[in-house]
Design a protein that fits this description.
The chain is built from ten helices and 20 strands. By secondary structure, it is of the alpha+beta class. Mean pLDDT is 88; it is low at 293-303 and 410-424. It binds zinc ion.
């Protein structure tokens, strides 16, 4: 399993800061030189893009030979992906420069996996390789590395392998920052407790309705979130209509877009984690996901559909879910679940049922919570469910976390027809 640690990097003195800056600036200068040469070769029908000069001689003493090699490799990768995109007709320009000398270069470097080390603890630190000339100039010993303080908690303290470190100056946050890719072996991951199964129904009013083979039903409410998303969308549209001719955006509009996305992503991340942890506790090892059922209903216009897709960023949510599940040794599988949202679990009819807001009713006498019923029907299609369903658990978002609502689902919302009829 591959993950990335992100952390802030703080030089311990002005001298260290200057050294780090020079290291990153020289890296950018090297990148720009390589890139310039490649662009020249690209324009010349007699030249080969892959054939570039030897840069170790001029940059090795500043950056260290392995960092020179990493930047060459990174640039080669950028060109390779440019050619791959070009082949598909999706290229968006040749690889660019990391700033320029006159206006300032973008401070950035890539350090080979064996040329740095991170130590996590009370005083976490990062040690990176620098070239001999910089060592001499700044008084580092022959075998010494530049030692920097690390701030922020690494998500992945224990791993089996570390990859190439990306170290850069983050202009927005006004701090140095690092991305450390790590590989985590399966032996370090949590294993499923049993072989149970869960099925999810994903929508907008109820973000996730879930039924498990252990008889648990969970309902994550999305109504308030969705409403706020729509409010922001309306506000964006209003501001757009007020723009002068020829202008298509403004600072305020961009900031609303960002806020809308941030809010959604935050709730989605938290939902994926809350749900997966809960399912792990239930002994679930496989999660089936169906696609957006309530938006397929006829009362949703095409426009509303598009907005819901936008709201959910469905693909992104499935990726998040799969990513979180992987940490628990669980797998997520997507299945088409056409008709499950309309199917009556009692008589199997898909044509006679009616959905009114959250309730699904059928002339045969069935009445239940529409999304929970859909997830249960979906689950029964994937596997056999032997246990009876417990009372559903309703979860609400309070802008920070998902928690059980004090008003759990009432009997009318029970999806198990036998139990539902007892209350009447
Ligand atoms: Zn029926």
């Amino acid at each position: 399993m591959k993950r990335t640690n992100t952390f802030d990097v703080i030089p311990q003195s002005e001298k260290d800061e200057e050294l780090l800056q020079r290291l990153l600036d020289a890296s950018a200068a090297l990148w720009n030189e390589i890139n310039y040469e490649r662009r020249e070769h690209y324009a010349d029908p007699n030249a080969d893009v892959w054939d570039i000069s030897e840069y170790r001689g001029r940059y090795g003493d500043t950056l260290g030979a392995s960092t020179v090699q990493q930047i060459e490799r990174k640039n080669r990768e950028a060109w390779r992906s440019f050619f791959a995109l070009k082949k598909k007709g999706e290229a968006n320009g040749k690889p660019g420069y990391w700033g320029n000398e006159r206006e300032g270069r973008e401070l950035r470097t890539y350090i080979r996996n064996t040329s740095y080390s991170v130590e996590w603890g009370e005083y976490s630190r990062l040690e990176i390789l620098v070239g001999q000339d910089l060592k001499d100039e700044y008084g580092l010993g022959h075998r010494e590395r530049l030692r920097l303080e690390v701030r922020g908690n690494p998500k992945w303290e224990e791993y089996d392998k570390q990859g190439r470190l990306e170290l850069f100056w983050d202009e927005n946050a006004q701090t140095f920052r690092a991305f450390q890719p790590v590989t985590i072996g399966t032996s370090r991951l949590v294993q499923p407790l049993a072989g149970e199964t869960a099925a999810l129904d994903i929508g907008a009013n109820n973000l996730v309705a879930c039924t498990t083979t252990t008889g648990t039903q969970l309902l994550y409410e999305g109504h308030d979130l969705f409403e706020r998303f729509r409010e922001t969308t309306r506000e964006i549209a209003r501001l757009q209509s007020l723009l002068d001719d020829g202008r298509y955006s403004s600072h305020r509009i961009r900031s609303l877009y960002r806020r809308r996305t941030r809010r959604r992503d935050h709730a989605q991340d938290a939902l994926a984690r809350h749900l997966i942890e809960r399912l792990h506790g239930e002994g679930v090892s496989t999660v089936y996901v169906g696609a957006l059922t309530d938006v397929l209903n006829t009362h949703w216009s095409v426009k509303a559909n598009a907005k819901t897709h936008n709201f959910w960023a469905f693909r992104q949510f499935i990726d998040r879910l799969a990513c979180t599940a992987e940490e628990y040794g669980m797998t997520v599988e997507t299945r088409s679940e056409a008709w499950t949202s309309q199917e009556c679990p009692q008589c199997g009819s898909t044509e006679r049922t009616t959905r009114h807001s959250d309730t699904l009713t059928c002339p045969c006498g069935f009445e239940g919570h529409a999304d929970l019923t859909a997830s249960e029907t979906f689950l029964r299609r994937q596997t056999t469910v032997a246990r009876p369903m417990a009372r559903p658990v309703r979860l609400k978002w309070n802008d920070h976390e998902w928690s059980e609502s004090p008003h759990s689902c009432s009997n009318e919302e029970r999806t198990n027809p036998q139990v539902a009829s007892v209350g009447r």
